[in-house]
Amino acid sequence: MAIEAPVLTTQDLTIRFGGHVAVDQVSCAFERGTLTAIVGPNGAGKTTYFNLISGQLRAYSGTVTLNGEDITRLGVPERCDRGIGRAFQLTNLFPTLSVRENVRLVVQAKARRGFDLFSRADSHVELIERAEHVLAEVQLLDQADQPVSALPHGDQRKLEVAMMIALAPQVLMFDEPTAGMSVDEVPVILDLIRELKNDRDRTILLVEHKMDVIRSLADRIIVLHNGQLVADGDPAEVMKSPIVQEAYLGNAPEDAEEARAKTATEEVARG
Ligand SMILES: Nc1ncnc2c1ncn2[C@@H]1O[C@H](COP(=O)(O)OP(=O)(O)OP(=O)(O)O)[C@@H](O)[C@H]1O
């Protein structure tokens, strides 16, 4: 069986802020149909790595490749056109318009940018259907006529996901999707991400601090520490690593530098 090329690759991806290297030569490939959790202590470079992939930040050196195309020098809209999706902040939306109208605006914007899913003749109907399909996928049809400003917090987060899906991305990026959610709301967003994962054409990247969330969703975990990729692999294995234990479970078994050296040694030993 032929091995499929990764959808997304970063190669030696690096950014500096002044003298501080926030993401340091991170090389990683993401396969289609997988969900990778990106973890690490506060300030490790997770959000900066996301920003480099989505185009909010430009790399100092290294490359980002999507389906074999070097997108490192492209801006956010061009990367979005090619299939990089990131959950919108609701501050970017129209709070007085309805949920449905907001989703339609994104669907229309996508169509206008030359996306060829919609034929000219019946484009209006298809755009409406596409928006309804997105609303159904995130289970917001019942709230579709409400103004965005009236949505409960959990539904607002669903709408953020809807806005991303409306752009038909191949790569879906979630930066702490459960942040600020109540205990009741967390399972709703988890179920939603799990549903999205069922579409094997989607490749999902998730920055998340809650270990139970990671455990329930991730196929793979990569660990960033001081901007460097220090562990990568099966969730159960990676969760045992000293850096993850220290950052997430409150243990401090070893100095981080020592832990990183140990992880690197283990990786070399594994070949
Ligand atoms: N625009 C910026 N200018 C200067 N320094 C920055 C900038 N953005 C991030 N940094 C620094 O880069 C490092 C990585 O930050 P980043 O937000 O990526 O970490 P993180 O792993 O996402 O942390 P957290 O889990 O706390 O969100 C930090 O030291 C941060 O202070």
TrEMBL record:
<keyword id="KW-0547">Nucleotide-binding</keyword>
<keyword id="KW-0067">ATP-binding</keyword>
<dbReference type="Pfam" id="PF12399">
    <property type="entry name" value="BCA_ABC_TP_C"/>
</dbReference>
<dbReference type="InterPro" id="IPR032823">
    <property type="entry name" value="BCA_ABC_TP_C"/>
</dbReference>
<dbReference type="GO" id="GO:0016887">
    <property type="term" value="F:ATP hydrolysis activity"/>
</dbReference>
<keyword id="KW-0813">Transport</keyword>
<protein>
    <submittedName>
        <fullName>ABC transporter ATP-binding protein</fullName>
    </submittedName>
</protein>
<dbReference type="InterPro" id="IPR003439">
    <property type="entry name" value="ABC_transporter-like_ATP-bd"/>
</dbReference>
<dbReference type="InterPro" id="IPR027417">
    <property type="entry name" value="P-loop_NTPase"/>
</dbReference>
<dbReference type="GO" id="GO:0005886">
    <property type="term" value="C:plasma membrane"/>
</dbReference>
<dbReference type="InterPro" id="IPR003593">
    <property type="entry name" value="AAA+_ATPase"/>
</dbReference>
<dbReference type="GO" id="GO:0005524">
    <property type="term" value="F:ATP binding"/>
</dbReference>
<feature type="region of interest" description="Disordered">
    <location>
        <begin position="252"/>
        <end position="271"/>
    </location>
</feature>
<dbReference type="InterPro" id="IPR051120">
    <property type="entry name" value="ABC_AA/LPS_Transport"/>
</dbReference>
<feature type="compositionally biased region" description="Basic and acidic residues">
    <location>
        <begin position="258"/>
        <end position="271"/>
    </location>
</feature>
<dbReference type="Pfam" id="PF00005">
    <property type="entry name" value="ABC_tran"/>
</dbReference>
<feature type="domain" description="ABC transporter">
    <location>
        <begin position="8"/>
        <end position="251"/>
    </location>
</feature>
